[in-house]
From TrEMBL:
NCBIfam families the UniProt entry points to: CM_mono_aroH
Protein name: Unannotated protein
Organism: freshwater metagenome
Annotated PANTHER family: CHORISMATE MUTASE (PTHR21164), CHORISMATE MUTASE AROH (PTHR21164:SF0)
Any single Pfam family the record assigns to this protein: CM_1
GO terms under biological process: chorismate metabolic process
Gene Ontology MF annotations: chorismate mutase activity
Amino acid sequence: MKSLRAFRGATQLTADNSEEMRGAVIELLEKTLQENSLSSEDLISILLTATPDLKCEFPAVGVRIFGLTDVPLICAQEIDVAGALPLTIRMLIHAESELSRAQIKHQYLRGAQVLRPDLERSSASESDSAQ
């Protein structure tokens, strides 16, 4: 039975550039959908945040270019914390899924893996036990 689930992810850019932002958001979205077997019909809403150093455009532009025109989106600015990872976009997808919370594969790409090192360790443990 499907339940409401939250799927997290983040990606880091190399510069405040619209083209790079669009590509990074699309990559993050594609990877999250693929790794968690989600379709556009499963999606309820998507929240995207950007660090204060990203001003080129709204991260939601990449989601719309990807083709999700009927999913509610909202963008917000991350809290400006000293020492925080710069040039970073975070994503929270609410979706209906049959996955348990433990089965969800959150996606941290392009340097954003440092935000969730615990996920890297659990992925490594899973692949070690699969061999």
